[in-house]
Amino acid sequence: MAEAFKNLINADVVQQVGQHLHRVWPHFDQKAFRQWALTGLDDLEFKARAQHLSQALAHTLPSDFSQAADILERSLKVIRPVPADHDPDQELGSLQTDDTGLGGWALWAFGEYVAKQGIDHPERALQALHAITQRFTAEFAIRPFIVAHPALTLATINQWAHDPSAHVRRLASEGSRPRLPWGLRLQTLVQDPRPTLSVLQKLQDDPSEYVRRSVANHLNDIAKDHPELIVEWLQTHLPDAPATRKRLLRHACRTLIKNGHPGVMAAWGLGTPFSGQAQLVLNTQQVQLGESLTLTVTLQSNSRQIQTLELDYRVHHIKANGELSPKTFKGKQITLQPGQTLVWSKQHPIKPITTRRYYPGVHRVEIQLNGQSHAQADFDLIL
After folding, report:
1. DSSP per residue over 289-330, as a string?
2. How far apart are CA 53 and CA 40, in angstroms?
3. 121 CB-contact burial (10 Å; exposed 0-12 / middle 13-18 / buried 19+)
4. Among residues 31, 66, 138, 139, which one has the fewest Cβ atoms lying within 10 Å of its Cβ?
């Protein structure tokens, strides 16, 4: 069985943090730090453990934040030169503590400390986050500074968009996402995301896919509240875009494509409704929880023109009150020749997952073509 996620911060990590802080600042009280950090640690989940360690740091580091930040930075591992074609995303797994200093999951607590203790010292705190993110990530820790010091922080991340480190450039996008999962929601940017658009424009053609993927997710966040801005972005940045940017923009539009947003569908050449017949057949009318359902879709074109189609499907799950709640799943993009008949099949698992509770009864599968419903079929879920 896989080890619990919370155990990424454990007694060994506490020991390592204490040793490296004492290495760079001999006055650091390792014994007191361990006592503060280990008391009650086993009862906490991951994020609470990071916050708990940050409190232990607050009890044992100097009260002067600038001095404390200097100590934290000196305790960090040495960054080795990397080849030009290295993958920063793959590098994340190797960002661990070593003999030269601290890295990896231990630094979540450092970010928590900086976010709380440095909130009244934003310039110095942002310098510390710049160093931390190159050994882990500071995407959660930077968010309180965007709230409390928006002008300074947004100006700083605009500068970071040109940083030599891909980790710092990614932070400029990821840390300012309006709806970052697990992170503090940036309500001001939810309401008006335009202050971060200059950062995204600088980074959408970044040489690192690791950075570009963050830009796509940032734009997808914006799409949930301001689809019109995404349509404008596509009108400006999609024509004559290189292949890497097209992939980024396609990923950024995934929610709006699933929802069949007319402006986005048109921008991708998917605005023309399907001309023809669509049929959906399920391999069974009864499915036991834990089994899979096979969908078979048959499309018959009635058009004299080639049709470009985005085929998605929606599963309407029963809720506790008996109502149906749809969830859209990606199918594939299809090019249908004039008069062509095409058959597409998909196996859809009906398995327990942590984010959904299943209820027995009649569920529905619906086929969407270019965002419009064209066929549906029902099945009975048995628990």
Report:
1. TTSEEEEEEEEEE--SS-EEEEEEEEEEEE-TTS-EEEEEEE
2. 11
3. middle
4. 31
206 and 91, same structural domain? yes
Number of domains composing the chain: 2
> Using N-to-C axis directions, what is the helix angle for 243-252 and 227-237, rounded to 10°?
170
Q: Which amino acid is at 350?
A: I
Pairing of strands 286-288, 324-336: unpaired
> For 180-236, what is each residue's pLDDT tens digit?
999 999 999 999 999 999 999 999 999 999 999 999 999 999 999 999 999 999 999
Helix (H) / strand (E) containing 216: helix 209-225
Give the domain range for residue 343.
276-382
**Residues 75 and 197 both lie in one domain:** yes
Residues 97 and 243 in one domain: yes
Say if residues 265 and 254 touch (Cβ distance below 8 Å): no
d(CA 275, CA 302): 6
- What tokens were used for 221? 């966040």
Spatial strand order in the sheet of 276-282: 276-282, 292-301, 341-349
Q: Are residues 189 and 324 in the same domain?
A: no
Lookup result for tokens 């995301």 = 193
2 pLDDT above the threshold of 60: no
The C-alpha atoms of residue 367 and residue 202 are separated, in whole angstroms, by 38
Calculate the dihedral angle through the C-alpha atoms of 206, 208, 214, 220, rounding to the nearest 10 degrees.
Answer: 60
In terms of Cα–Cα distance, which of 173, 204, 210 is closest to 189? 173
**pTM for the whole thing?**
0.88
What whole-number distance in Å separates Cα of residue 215 and Cα of residue 102? 28
CA–CA distance, 243 with 212 (Å, rounded to integer): 12
Q: For residue 204, what are its two tokens?
A: 């959408």
Residues in the chain: 383
Tokens of 46: 């991951």
Of the candidates 329, 315, 328, the one whose C-alpha atom is nearest the C-alpha of residue 358 is 315
Final residue before a domain boundary, out of 208, 242, 266: 266
Is 271 within the bounds of a domain? no
